[in-house]
Specification:
The chain contains 13 helices and 2 strands; from the N terminus they run ααααβααααβααααα. The chain is mainly α and about 270 residues long. Helix 5 runs parallel beside helix 9 and helix 6 packs across helix 8. It is globular, with a radius of gyration of 22 Å.
């Protein structure tokens, strides 16, 4: 019996009801982890969130070491980050605490969210499709976490260093609002996490016939422009930062072409065996 038989017997309302429970369980997982994160605010804020604003943050030390190794002296070493962070609204700190905890809940619960998504779609797949997609939860979660780490350790420090040191006049001192600082970090981390899901997205789009390896190869130049545009959006407007961010995205694109080619080849083999 094919894996689709059970799904075919369900009505549209049954599908909606099942989806609702998958969403409810995902939200509950986020809220449970968010509650734990809420209780550990000192670690979340002092260590994680405000880590990239410290001049001894590990990324700044890496760049400084690389600069010295390449004979560039201290050109990439961070001596100071001349800005302060302030909260200018009555509920500013509580709101930041709450939403940051929810963000932490979403990131940590991501594998479970993917698991619930997989439980919803897998009954609609044939047995061979489910076998070919084994490891989906692990790979999707791994790519997301790699993207999050890339956003936190690479994109965020580059952005904070550039924007924190940027000045149009010596008369102006940077006092950044807490929500602005957290918004920058949140955008960098989540955007990177989602971008790193590109191979997974390409896999499913190829499976349903929306894209092909030929399409991806043909539009490689256009994709390069898109990649550079994305890099410009999530990084400060300096060439070095954009190159650093662009390289892994280009690698992901080439990996996606390879994945798409494998999917098409497997589909062709399946058709020949019919």
């Amino acid at each position: 019996m094919s894996g689709k038989s059970t799904k075919d017997e369900m009505s549209f309302l049954d599908h909606l009801e099942e989806l609702r429970w998958h969403l409810i369980r995902s939200v509950l997982a986020i809220l449970i982890i968010a509650t734990v994160a809420f209780l550990f605010k000192d670690f979340i804020f002092d260590v994680l969130l405000f880590g990239p604003k410290q001049k001894d943050f590990i990324t700044y030390r890496w760049f400084c070491s690389i600069s010295q190794t390449l004979g560039q002296g201290n050109s990439f070493c961070i001596e100071e980050l001349p800005f302060r962070i302030q909260s200018r609204t009555m509920a500013g700190q509580f709101s930041a605490h709450l939403w940051t905890s929810i963000l932490a809940g979403f990131i940590v619960a991501f594998p479970y969210i993917v698991f619930e998504f997989w439980k919803f779609i897998s009954p609609g797949l044939y047995e061979n499709e489910r076998k070919n997609a084994r490891g989906f939860i692990f790979i999707a979660s791994l790519l997301f976490f790699i993207g999050v780490l890339f956003g936190y350790y690479i994109v965020t420090p580059l952005s904070i260093n550039f924007l924190g040191n940027y000045s149009v006049s010596s008369e102006i001192f940077n006092d950044f609002d807490l929500s602005s600082y957290i918004g920058l970090l949140r955008a960098s981390v989540l955007a990177s996490g989602i971008i790193f899901e590109l191979p997974i997205i390409v896999y499913f789009l190829t499976k349903v016939g929306i894209i092909t390896p030929a399409f991806l190869r043909k539009n490689r130049k256009i994709s390069l422009v898109v990649v550079l545009s994305l890099s410009a959006i999530i990084t400060p407007p300096d060439i070095a930062s954009q190159i650093i961010v662009s390289i892994p995205i280009l690698i992901l694109y080439e990996v996606s072409i390879l994945i798409s080619r494998i999917v098409v080849r497997n589909q062709d083999k399946a058709l020949k065996n019919v």
